[in-house]
Every structure is written in structure tokens, then in C-alpha cells.
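Quick one, C-alpha cells below:
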């Protein structure tokens, strides 16, 4: 997964960088760096992002 793929997935789920970061247990800064290809996206991070995008009801803040 590349940064632009991460950004597209996040936006398709209508999540902010901060909301995605909270859902996957990372900082907003790290999500930003991954989207800009300044930090690597590990496979486990990719899987976590895909899970959040596919199951947004589990991460609605309630």
C-alpha cells in the first residue's frame, strides 16, 4: 500500500486523519507521514486501516 492508497481509503470512509489515527492506535502525525510516503505502511497497519474502512460502525466513537 502506498500513501495515496491510504489517503483514498481514508477519504472513502469520510474519516479525518485524526479519526483514523485514533481507530488504529497511531498518531495523526504518523498517518499524515504515511500518506505523504514519508513513513512506511506496515502490512499490519494496512490490515487495520482496511478493517476500519470496512466496519466503520465499530469506530463511531460510542
Amino acid at each position: 500500500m502506498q500513501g495515496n492508497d491510504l489517503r483514498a481509503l481514508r477519504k472513502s470512509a469520510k474519516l479525518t486523519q485524526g479519526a483514523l489515527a485514533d481507530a488504529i492506535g497511531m498518531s495523526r502525525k504518523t498517518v499524515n507521514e504515511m500518506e505523504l510516503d514519508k513513513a512506511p505502511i506496515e502490512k499490519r497497519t494496512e490490515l487495520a486501516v482496511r478493517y476500519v474502512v470496512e466496519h466503520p460502525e465499530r469506530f463511531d466513537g460510542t
